[in-house]
TrEMBL record:
<keyword id="KW-0479">Metal-binding</keyword>
<dbReference type="GO" id="GO:0008270">
    <property type="term" value="F:zinc ion binding"/>
</dbReference>
<feature type="binding site">
    <location>
        <position position="609"/>
    </location>
    <ligand>
        <name>L-homocysteine</name>
    </ligand>
</feature>
<dbReference type="InterPro" id="IPR013215">
    <property type="entry name" value="Cbl-indep_Met_Synth_N"/>
</dbReference>
<feature type="binding site">
    <location>
        <position position="571"/>
    </location>
    <ligand>
        <name>5-methyltetrahydropteroyltri-L-glutamate</name>
    </ligand>
</feature>
<dbReference type="GO" id="GO:0032259">
    <property type="term" value="P:methylation"/>
</dbReference>
<keyword id="KW-0486">Methionine biosynthesis</keyword>
<feature type="binding site">
    <location>
        <position position="736"/>
    </location>
    <ligand>
        <name>Zn(2+)</name>
    </ligand>
</feature>
<feature type="domain" description="Cobalamin-independent methionine synthase MetE C-terminal/archaeal">
    <location>
        <begin position="436"/>
        <end position="758"/>
    </location>
</feature>
<feature type="binding site">
    <location>
        <position position="122"/>
    </location>
    <ligand>
        <name>5-methyltetrahydropteroyltri-L-glutamate</name>
    </ligand>
</feature>
<feature type="binding site">
    <location>
        <begin position="525"/>
        <end position="526"/>
    </location>
    <ligand>
        <name>5-methyltetrahydropteroyltri-L-glutamate</name>
    </ligand>
</feature>
<dbReference type="InterPro" id="IPR002629">
    <property type="entry name" value="Met_Synth_C/arc"/>
</dbReference>
<comment type="similarity">
    <text>Belongs to the vitamin-B12 independent methionine synthase family.</text>
</comment>
<feature type="binding site">
    <location>
        <position position="653"/>
    </location>
    <ligand>
        <name>Zn(2+)</name>
    </ligand>
</feature>
<dbReference type="Pfam" id="PF01717">
    <property type="entry name" value="Meth_synt_2"/>
</dbReference>
<dbReference type="InterPro" id="IPR038071">
    <property type="entry name" value="UROD/MetE-like_sf"/>
</dbReference>
<keyword id="KW-0808">Transferase</keyword>
Length: 771
């Protein structure tokens, strides 16, 4: 038997984003559920066909879900929070969308599940919510139906299932008594908290192991009955700094699950090496283990340690093909690893991608690649071919991968010299804003008219002058709406921008923008990450023209809107020729120049968005100091050209910032706007515990849900914030940009937001007057 090949997962959006468009049409009521499912299953079948065409030994089934795999697993297990009680009349498809969006047909609008980053990626997962007395009502009929459909391809199947312990680790308990329960879950009576993968582990969820083991066992038996031989059990938390309670839980759980005659469980890990969990992982009573060697440090050779300690009967799946990079693999170099591993493992060696291919675009064949990077790239479909070539020994040198050596790049980082208190006093005196000033995060709806004008312009059917006129019309409309709403600090709405990173990448030298290189971020939201192919420089001003025009339409302050260097880097595919640190510093210098030009053009408030500030933080605590050093340095450098009375804002969203407030404080932005609405005000508690000296705008409502919260709903956030942040340093804003909403939804929500701010403002001023 040759080397077995498989993947951990494949992009589920479709080559032309068919799943996205099918979902959105269904949500709008433009198609039936039967039509939606037919379109979704066509994408699913195309993914399977791609694996068959490439010649993979095993067909991966179960990685295809409609919104998010953790969300799907929660619904399969019946983990439905009480506020979604009306979901009982929905089937599983609509239940998933209800939990993710807070809206479903014939159901009341409610707050959606919290959404946060998947480990150190730009993908988002939905956080399951447990109660302390959680009960489970399992229904895996959708997964079993997938298996039945996949049998038509006449290939050996490998089914993907979220691991029991990873599912529990990424969930949270929402009861008021949860913190106390978490502190005593291990029985020692001491408090244990652990920050890893962007989430503080809630040890109380370990109590559900006994309830879930029989459910998983039944699922495995059902899969076996359908002729499935292999199950990929995703347990990526094995790469984290696990507390002893979780390590012990792995041994106990898999000892309970091991008796599955004829079914082979493969524990899958990714995004890092096993580290201190090596001995634990290799000795779990399962048939095999998958490791991601693409994240090993140069010269580490951790995979050799795994081979040395792996019991002689176990399969080892080596993740050799990088599931998060768009650069082609050096098959000659990787073949050396295969040859060495095969000598030790023989037919127990499997080859795979390091992680799911969910994180890269679907197919390079749709692109017109510039000559200078021809042969250097590989998207998901090409990675399948790389994997099979590696297994078959069909190896040849790729001369395109010989990157020229570059001289090291460094930058003497600059920073603003005046302390925040001095800056903020000068800014308040200059702006004369009311208490609790209202603003938005930057973008307004990307309407059909905007998209049509941009498409016509890109095709050459609309002149530059006509396109500019169309964008100015949209900017004028955004200014007009903000005037009517009574917003205090305006934005121009970003009509001219397709994406907050792609826009700047198109104006900076050193990037290549693919045409169809879409990647799922969450649900139906897809992004098209730029690819960094050379050193970054700024040939000319990028935003001054648009902000200057917006300023000419109003007497109100209009914020200049920039994307920060860390976010541009983290939401792009990094280069092969430079370190991430070097690229980030290059970007910081480009943004510093833009800040200076905006300031010279009379822009008084400049927002430098760092939505992805924490995103690429190393998963292990010991590896984080260097990351924080260059990310904080980069932000401070790009804002260093601001004068004392120029106010610098930044924005962060949908990540877990509980373990990095000192670094956020070190960024020293005058005002930070940050997501709090979906996360149940957890972040405000962190600010309360640790303190934050600068101004803050906690997001008062969730823009990713189509529901319109009331002013009273929004007030909960501000009342919570006032317990920690003085009113003089508190702003009111949504929790993210509004580009994905329509104008009706936007105006309805902002009307409630302004109403709430004015009410609280009046109460505070009245209280002050009578004090």
């Amino acid at each position: 038997m040759g080397i077995q090949t498989h993947i951990l997962g494949y992009p589920r959006i479709g080559v032309k984003r068919e799943l996205k468009f099918a979902e959105e049409a269904y949500w709008k009521g433009e198609s039936t559920q039967a039509e939606f499912l037919e379109q979704a299953q066509a994408v699913e079948a195309a993914n399977w066909q791609a694996q068959v065409d490439a010649g993979l030994a095993l067909l991966t089934v179960g990685d295809f879900v409609f919104y998010d795999a953790i969300l799907t697993q929660a619904v399969r297990l019946g983990v439905i929070p009480a506020r979604f009680a009306e979901s009982a009349k929905l089937n599983q498809v609509d239940q998933q969308f209800y939990l993710a969006r807070g809206r479903a047909p014939d159901c009341s609008d409610v707050a959606a599940l919290e959404m946060t980053k998947w480990f150190d990626t730009n993908y988002h997962y939905l956080v399951p919510e447990f109660t302390l007395n959680q009960e489970f009502h399992a229904d895996f009929s959708d997964l079993l139906a997938q298996v039945d459909r996949a049998k038509a391809f006449n290939q050996p199947l490998k089914v993907v299932v979220p691991g029991l312990l990873t599912f529990l680790y990424l969930s949270r308990i929402v009861d008021g008594k949860a913190e106390k329960a978490a502190a005593t879950a291990c029985g020692c009576g001491s408090e244990h908290t652990e920050a890893a993968a962007g989430y503080i582990a809630n040890h109380a969820t370990l109590k559900f192991i006994d309830a879930l083991v029989p459910i998983y066992a039944k699922l495995f038996d059902d899969l076996k009955a359908r002729g499935v031989e292999y199950v990929q059990v995703d347990e990526p938390i094995l790469v984290l700094d696990l507390a002893p309670e979780w390590q012990a839980a792995f041994e106990r759980t898999y000892n309970l699950l091991q008796r599955r005659d004829g079914l082979k469980l493969i524990i899958s890990t990714y995004f890092e090496t096993l580290g201190e969990n090596l001995n634990l992982a290799v000795n779990l009573p399962v048939a095999g283990l998958h490791i991601d060697i693409t994240r090993e440090k140069a010269g580490e050779f951790f995979w050799k340690k795994v081979i040395d300690q792996l019991p002689a009967h176990k399969i080892l799946s080596l993740g050799l093909i990088n599931g998060r990079s768009v650069w082609a693999s050096d098959l000659v170099q990787l073949n050396d690893i295969v040859v060495t591993a095969e000598k030790s493992l023989g037919d127990r060696l499997w080859l795979s991608t390091g992680s799911s291919l969910l994180h890269v675009p679907v197919d390079l064949r749709s692109e017109q690649v510039p000559a200078e990077i021809e042969g250097k790239l590989a998207f998901a479909r090409q990675k399948l071919d790389e994997l099979v070539a590696l297994a078959n020994g069909n190896i040849s040198e790729n001369p395109a991968l010989n990157f020229a050596l570059q001289a090291a790049f460094d930058l003497q980082g600059q920073a603003r010299q005046e302390p925040f208190t001095e800056r903020y006093a000068a800014q308040q005196a200059k702006f004369n804003l009311p208490l609790l000033p209202t603003t938005t995060i930057g973008s307004f709806p990307q309407t059909a008219e905007i998209r049509a004008a941009r498409a016509a312009w890109n095709k050459g059917n609309l002149s530059d002058a006509d396109y500019e006129a169309a964008m100015k019309k949209e900017i004028a409309y955004a200014i007009e709406q903000q005037e009517q709403l009574g917003i205090d600090v305006f934005v121009h709405g970003e009509a001219e921008r397709t994406d907050m990173v792609e826009y700047f990448a198109g104006l900076l030298d050193g990037f290549w923008l693919s045409k169809f290189g879409w990647v799922q971020s969450y649900g139906s939201r897809c992004v098209r990450p730029p690819i960094i192919v050379a050193d970054i420089t700024r040939p000319h001003a990028m935003t001054v023209k648009w902000i200057t025009y917006a300023n000419s339409l109003t007497d109100k302050i209009v914020k200049g809107m920039l994307t920060g260097p860390v976010t541009i880097l983290n939401w792009s595919f990094p280069p092969a020729h430079r370190s991430r640190r070097e690229v980030c510093l290059q970007l910081a210098e480009a943004i510093r120049q833009e800040v200076s030009d905006l300031q010279d053009a009379g822009v008084e408030i400049i927002q430098i968005d760092e939505a992805a500030f924490r995103e690429a933080l190393p998963l292990r605590t010991a590896d984080r100091a260097d990351y924080w050093d260059w990310t904080v340095k980069s932000f401070k450098h790009c804002s260093s050209s601001a004068k004392v009375d120029t106010q610098i804002h930044t924005h962060m969203c949908y990540s877990d910032f509980k373990d990095c407030l000192p670094q956020i404080t070190a960024m020293d932005a005058d005002v930070i706007t940050i997501e709090t609405s979906r996360s149940g005000l957890q972040l405000l508690e962190v600010f309360h515990q640790q303190g934050y000296p600068n101004a803050i705008g906690p997001g008062v409502y969730d823009i990713h849900s189509p529901r319109t919260p009331s002013a009273d709903n929004m007030r909960v956030v501000i009342d919570g914030a006032l317990k920690t942040i003085p009113a003089e340093r508190l702003w009111v804003n949504p929790d993210c940009g509004l580009k994905t909403r329509n104008w009706d939804e936007t105006c309805a929500a902002l009307t409630e937001m302004v109403k709430m701010a004015k009410t609280v403002r009046a109460e505070l001023e009245a209280k002050k007057a009578t004090a």
